[in-house]
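Example A, followed by Example B.
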Amino acid sequence: MADLLADLSTAQLEALQAVLSQKIDGLAGNDLCLEHPHALLSRLGLETVMDPDGLGGSRLVEWLAAWRHAGGNGPTLAMAVASVLAERMAQRSSQRVELVWSGPSPGVGTITRDQSVLIRQLVEQAQKRLLVTTYAIYPGPFIRELMGLVQQRMALFPTLRVRLVCNIHRPKGNTSTPEQLVKQFREKTWPALWGDDAQESQPEVFFDPRSTSLRPEAVCHVKAVVADDGVLVTSANLTDAAQLHNFELGVRLSSPTHADAVWLHFQRLVETGLLKSLF
């Protein structure tokens, strides 16, 4: 029966695992998930998975019902899902290079990972250093959740060095001075991202001053994450649209050498004044 689980994409397996481990609000991570498989898969966007005839039926729904009738329960299903994921991750870790996608899954047979899940995991695993760079950043639900995870890591590991690099966008037709634009971002946009009640512990935030000029001609367009000895380079901005909806592609490298190179490059940009501190 585990063969069907192996046919699911990594993103689909991780979504199912999140429910079974009670990581998604509104869904209980216990046997109630198996009592209503249609509702469970509909919430996860998996209701049409394994529908080779296109008739609206789902082999996955039938599989979950058979699992339960055969005596399987939520904990044993979670173990099976974890086993398939662990085997897949072990295979990829040996390659040290991994492709990650954003956007709707193309379905069965896709083994690339969901980028938003990976970024959460990178933040949750960081203990020494965390660098997040983006061109665009907006305070949507996913981004606010991600900032909350960053705050938790900073509280848990006081020596964790966290850096965020972004651009301060000038709206079309806006004639504010660069100083006014930076002040507005610092006093309005940043609190919306980080939270008004979390001002004591702040990451280091830098921006490309070229983006604040009255006629910006160049910006820092890099989208990347460095978490300890791993690095993700991606087309996706730090926005809900890019992380959850757009088709975006990234490459994760498990390489201390490349992680060091990206971290040190941004360090030099800061030291030479090409990036400015927000605070």
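Example B, a separate protein, is given below in the same form.
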Amino acid sequence: MEVLSIATKELCINEEIKAKEVRLIDDAGEQLGVIATSLALSKAYEKGLDLVEISPNSAPPVCRIMDYGKYRFEREKKEKEQRKKQTTIDIKEIQLSCRIDTHDFETKLKHARKFLEGGAKVKVCIKFKGREMSHTAIGLEVIEKFGEACTDVGVIEKKPVLDGRQMIMFLNSKLNVPQNGSKKAPKAE
């Protein structure tokens, strides 16, 4: 039993097709109309090809005469090419505190800079414990100072936001950010 999964649908081939009638498309792409499944199957076998159910949910199901092995090979080749083109961006997290000392700050800054130079995104967060919640301005100063110290290798993607008992800021590597606003179309002069 040979079945190919596309998105969440499965393709039935040859004898696996259970419908009595199908809408047939030949190997040249021409529609031959609604035909009995046995007749469509014999036409496919005459040409030495397979009968593949393309759209099983329509009434009657749409089937196509094609070389299934070649179709499956080309499909897998396209999927492999798409996977090659995908890029994944890692998100690294740096945790600070309101009462961080200068050496600890510099160490965490060095780590964040290393992550940004490597092309990763950095999530900087400060967790407020106990009475620190009433002094969020101190945490804001620390996190903004951290963001400013990383501006040569990264860009602040999301400004510091207080979310419950923690303040979060996202930094993105300059390697991932398009230069000179190339996202937007150039203005006509």
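On Example B: The chain has two domains: 4-68, 91-176.
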